Fold these 3 entries.
Entry 1:
Amino acid sequence: MIYQTLISATELKARAQYLNLVIVDCRHDLVNPNAGRDAYAAGHLPLARFVHLDELLSGPKTDASGRFHGRHPLPDRQQFVQAMRALGISNDTQVVAYDGHGGMYAARLWWMLRWIGHADVAVLDGGVAAWQGLGEPLSTELPPAATPGNLQDLSALVKSVDVQALLANLSTPTLQVVDARAPDRFRGENETMDAVGGHIPGAKNRFFKDNLQADGRFKDATQLRQEWLTVVGDPQAAVMQCGSGVTACHNLLALEVAGLAGASLYPGSWSEWSSDPARPVATGN
């Protein structure tokens, strides 16, 4: 059995010994970049390997010309493939990503592995809390050095769009942009991460945390489908964005769970869009 969206803590516990498995700890804090590594050192799932959002799951913020591409642009594709091989990931590896924030960072790794064509990756539903909820311990031991994997760069299983496509969409709307940030930031209020508050004109707001139940696990597929169909009619014509291309992946995962595959990611998201004063900004709902 393979897992390509979510895996429960119960399933992971029962099947870990039967899977060709690499578990990846994606914990992070946007305000404190050291928090994830500190949490990993304090206790992680046994044999899990740590990846840092800023170091492995993001690329340089500016290109050679100095143009800003957002706070967490995608890294060089080949460098990412090499980093995943170094974790021991091969083409036949089942990857399980987890964090301590309802999947908001683990979903980024889920999307990025699909970006390089690796389908067998799932997010641990409920993260660390769900694992501990089974009475399972965390470990402070580092896993043995990984045997490098043979992961290949294959055709992408996901889509992305750039800022130029969304600028063109303003005059000829064919895409529905969906913003994963909290409602107040979408309205342009309480902006603390970026210099300008507001949202891309025409965007709708779907806070990524609305994909979750009170216990931090995802809502079931039926409920997610019902909710998302009020936001997007055709997922193939939808673009997910957020502040910097991270929590937008959570919405993409929720769409996949709901059976509404095909939406695109705008990696630069609001941090890139708002960096150019020539780009229009909307506020309010």
Entry 2:
Amino acid sequence: MPTLLTAIYYLAFATPRYVSEARFIVRAASQEQPSALGVALQGVGLSASATDSFAVHEYIRSRDALAALEPKIDVAKMLAPAGADLMSRHPRPWEGETKESLYKGLQRFVTVGYETSTGISTLRVESFRAQDSQKLAAALLDSGEELVNKLNERSSASAVIDAERTKLEAETRLRDIQVRLTAFRNREGMVDPTLSATENSALIGELLSGIATLEAERSQLAAQAPNSPQLPILDGRLAAFRRQLAEERAKIAGGAGSLATKFSEYETLAAERTLAERAMAAASTALDTARVDARRQKLYLERIVSPSVADKATEPNRLRAILIVLISTLLIYGIGWLVWAGLREHRQL
């Protein structure tokens, strides 16, 4: 009787359904093809491509995907065309016309599978019209591509934004140090205390050389003419040279306004500027690397086979459904008969 009823339904009432299939792959730009050993070991754990593909699968079968479809396609009308039988269409007699019911009903018409050996995903969509199946499959693939684009934006934004923030902080630090260094130069009236110290050292060397020359001349003159009127003149020049020498030495070190004090402050600022420039260079390199990595790790949903338009209904498979019911009922009948026979023998004992 169940087999007879099933045969009557499938042969006389079941509405034919058209299937549209599409095949796609989700991969990163830098992803390489796995080796033979890698393919053999894919069962041990999930690869990155498999994880990305499963994310797209879950989204295609999610409520978010249905919500994204509704502004573009009247899914409820597509699943309940005029003339469709009550057991195939949505909603079925015991189902309500709610969003949740529509979501659960859509699961009967959409199937997504993954081939581990090739990494190719297959999207299979059924409906009561060939064009509707192709349209719904294409819309679901578009939704999957939008999800991949959102994932790319999130992954690239997190890394690149952090690198940009680090570079901005390094630029601000370098700019602040440069302002402080410029203020120091304007306040002290010198570009580089090191150059000033070098110039003063050269001047001190010249003064020492002049003093040595004058002392040699005076010694020679004093030995030859002790009462020479040139001696007071040489003494005056020596005194002037020594005063100038003391002043130049005082400029280099010895007082609060000496070059030594200024040199210490300048060296601190120069060292901070060097560190800031290195940090700036490192931040720029890190930003470039983050952008390159973001492009390299970008995901792509590539359509290998676009959604097809079937010219013949392939569902439901009437013969298979009838055979399944026949075999199932025979198994139930056989098990029931064995149980009944055992109970009857037990009663006789």
Entry 3:
Amino acid sequence: MRDDRHDGTGWHADIDDLRAYARGELRAPRLWSVDTHLVTCAICRGTLAEVSDPQTLDAGWERLDAELDAPRPGFVEGLLLRIGVADHTARLLLATPVLRASWLGAVLLVLAMTVASVYTSDSPVLFLALAPLLPLTGVALSYGPALDPTHELAVVAPLHGFRLLMTRTIAVLVASLGLNGLATLALPGYGLRALAWLVPALALTATELALTARLGPVLAPALVSGGWVALLMVTEATTHGMLAAFTGPAQGVAAAVAVIAACVLHRMRDRFDASPVPSPFTHFARRSTS
């Protein structure tokens, strides 16, 4: 500080320091001194405004307004940002309908009731039959104009359609498989048999995604889930027990189906980027109103 503009009220910041401060070039410890002085000195604040570039000052105020008006990230979004997820990707993940507390709570309730029925019937068949359908349902509800209320926002997001689909699919799989895994821990008496749902779940989800490119996000999961139920019923009728669908050979077939479906999905990835995936419900609604 020096007395270049002494007016009886005290010392003031050097004019050259104020110019450097305005350009962002002032270094410590003089920066700390000017910062502290500007808080209490209206004269130096006025001088700083005179020596500052008006456009730079306006841009600074705009950045400050944007920062103050920006919504504060929640706990989950903040966690995603800390582990390196891009901010727009984290926001899209949180906008996924099936990652809301209502959906996750419903899944937990269904799993709890299923686990309870296993202890009642002394057989894991119901749990093994239901668990693969939960990830499939979650993925179906996370994408498409007929089921996703944020679909219009997702379409204009800075992500290609296929990447958006994969981002949400991975998020849904992590959540669904995690909940299924917690439910599996409640069945310690069945050993590895309690994990027999995992490979069929991946196969059903991959098949659903591959068919979505052609059939849309409503018909594809409906056909896949219906096919799974039909397979279990046929297995029950021919082998007098659904557990045959979860044996070693059946697991190998499910793994092969998952790999083939993943390859088909990769080859058809451009269909998701060209335009929003059509929905049979949308076409039916158009015919009804015409």
